[in-house]
Amino acid sequence: MSALTDLTIAEARDGLRAKRFSARELTDAHLGAIEALNPRLNAYITVTPDQARAQADAADRVLAAGEAGALTGIPVASKDMFCSEGIRTTAGSRILENFVPPYESAVTERMLRDGAVILGKANLDEFAMGSANLTSAYGPVENPWKRHDDDAVLVPGGSSGGSAAAVAAHLALGATGTDTGGSIRQPASYCGIAGIKPTYGRCSRWGIVAYASSLDQAGPFARTVRDNAILLRSMAGHDPRDSTSAMREVPDFEAACQRGVKGLRIGLPREYVADGMSEEIRTLWQNGAAMLRAAGAEVVEVSLPHTKHALAAYYIIAPAEASSNLARYDGVRFGHRSSDNRDLNDLYERSRAEGFGAEVKRRIMVGTYVLSAGYYDAYYLKAQKVRALIARDFAEAFRSVDALLTPTAPSAAFAQGETIDDPVAMYLNDVFTVPINLAGLPAMSIPAGLSATGLPLGLQIIGRAFDEETVFAVSAALEQAAAFTHRPVLRADTLNAGA
């Protein structure tokens, strides 16, 4: 039998139900892999072996009774933005280093209801602010992929880099992530796995540490499109505790993966031909379009004229909302509290100065500036108007097509330190993903090829609001045609974990 850590979620689900192995064996295989590889990759901030084994034992009892749920016995990682009852939840920040929530997030609550085994809390950029998983107070995450003939440490993408690296390195079968401007899709592309940002409101935000509330959305990572469909069905659904949660039924996303694309119209936005786009990204995009044509879809060009303004609008709206959300961290009610202060104002200042990292401080300052008197209309209000135009562009495009195909990221993963000193260059990593968050639409990244240096490159499929089924159908067809079977150098099955 191949390593248990090499299974997909669908294969593990079937194997558990057929009693070819137990949930405890599957969990122990992943915990062993984490013990071996996490000291290098730093994909997890907190590992919870005792809790995971207890959940696995409970899953085995449920399996023995023939009452398995959708995720019974499936070991997953949870991004450390999701509150875990009784378990430290840090959001990658020193200011929350000792925060232990008394409640469970809605998303992980649903996954636990369905029998998931949560192995631990995955690393991330501090408060999900970053595109490379370099801003975490608990150290950077290493991408398990390597360039040809080059041992440079590569970034896994961000902010959900720990979740993506854990899944790519076979330290979990799947993982939760959050996507505010591309933080699921971009790390999925960098790490050679699949990840979906659902429609805004499809998954509850209750119990997720807030970054930018009108943009944040939870979603899954997994190594296949089908596995993402299994996870999302468990994660999604209306939640009365979240006023933005959509009151819609959750479709059978796994069944949608079998639909195919025959008769669908797929749009290629001409504005996504970005300045300086590499030839290999352009070729990958053309190849993806050709694959969908061969599978029976019609591929046409469409226009999203306000795309060029998306990044500027995003980096006004997101910091503004972050400035407001992060005002609650004052050293009084919870979080880090400075021990060296003279009075209440000094306590606020020192606690926040000590607790927040440089990128978080930068975004708070930008957000506070654009919300200040005299600048609100000039920046924040104008950015919201641009956002409305971007959403209208997508609505107009979807009058003539069923889905859109674009690159996920403008490049493959880069090495730690290559662009970290240039914040604008770092922000440009999200140029293809940010417009979708501004419009609140679903989008998925799947691995579709390799760069000249042997690193994974992703393609992005964008759908209409609450039409994740079509996104899954197109993604599954593209996944089958691309036949991406490459794997990273650093992964658990090379250690024979659980074999």
Automatic annotation (TrEMBL):
One of its GO terms (cellular component) is glutamyl-tRNA(Gln) amidotransferase complex. GO terms for biological process: translation. The active site is at residues 79, 159, 183. It is an enzyme of class 6 (ligase). The keyword Ligase applies. SUPFAM superfamilies: Amidase signature (AS) enzymes. Its EC number is 6.3.5.7. Residues 25-471 form the Amidase domain. Pfam families: Amidase. It catalyses: L-glutamyl-tRNA(Gln) + L-glutamine + ATP + H2O = L-glutaminyl-tRNA(Gln) + L-glutamate + ADP + phosphate + H(+). It comes from the Bacteria. GO terms for molecular function: ATP binding; glutaminyl-tRNA synthase (glutamine-hydrolyzing) activity. Keywords: ATP-binding, Ligase, Nucleotide-binding, Protein biosynthesis. PANTHER family: GLUTAMYL-TRNA(GLN) AMIDOTRANSFERASE SUBUNIT A, TRANSAMIDASE. Allows the formation of correctly charged Gln-tRNA(Gln) through the transamidation of misacylated Glu-tRNA(Gln) in organisms which lack glutaminyl-tRNA synthetase. The reaction takes place in the presence of glutamine and ATP through an activated gamma-phospho-Glu-tRNA(Gln). Belongs to the amidase family. GatA subfamily. Heterotrimer of A, B and C subunits. This is Glutamyl-tRNA(Gln) amidotransferase subunit A. It comes from Granulibacter bethesdensis. The gene is gatA.
